[in-house]
Amino acid sequence: QVQLVESGGGLVPPGGSLRLSCAASGSGSAIGAMGWYRQAPGKQRELVAAINRFGATKLADSVKGRFTISRDNAKNTVYLQLNSLKPEDTAVYYCVADRWDSLTPDDYWGQGTQVSVSS
């Protein structure tokens, strides 16, 4: 079984930045794609960003130019840099990992970390 431990959420003013981290542990086999989903109150969960072991990435249109995803394969850790944050970015952000390298990971889920953007 794989455990995902997230960190880095918090409250920031509009225009601020945050960096989310997620470390995967407990797997006897390699982790494929990793990424982040988010869910705001009353809204559907959406894929924010994903990255596979080969560095291919996918970003939601709403965050392109503001968010950056990266990973350290040796540490099975994925990062999400959130810049120019807007109130509409407020949501619970979930780290996700997959056994395969498809850019829609969904095998393993973290507990979620709250990101709040407000003045």
List the helices and strands and how they pair.
Layout: E1 3-7, E2 10-12, E3 18-25, E4 34-39, E5 46-51, E6 57-59, E7 67-72, E8 77-82, E9 91-97, E10 108-109, E11 113-117
Parallel strand pairs: 2-11
Antiparallel strand pairs: 1-3, 3-8, 4-5, 4-9, 5-6, 7-8, 9-10, 9-11
Describe the protein in words.
The chain has no helices and 11 strands. Strands 2, 4, 5, 6, 9, 10 and 11 form a 7-stranded mixed β-sheet that branches. A 4-stranded antiparallel β-sheet has the order 1-3-8-7, with no helix packed on it. The protein is mostly beta strands. It has strands at 3-7, 10-12, 18-25, 34-39, 46-51, 57-59, 67-72, 77-82, 91-97, 108-109, 113-117. It is 0% helix and 48% strand.
Uncertain spans: none
Q: Structural class from helices and strands?
A: mainly beta
Distance between termini? 40 Å
Main sheet makeup: 7 strands, mixed
Average residue-wise pLDDT: 95
Label the overall shape: globular
Quickly count the helices. Answer: 0
Helix content: under 10%
Strand content: over 45%
Note the quaternary state here.
single chain
Topology as H/E string? EEEEEEEEEEE
Number of strands: 11
Radius of gyration from CA coordinates: 13 Å
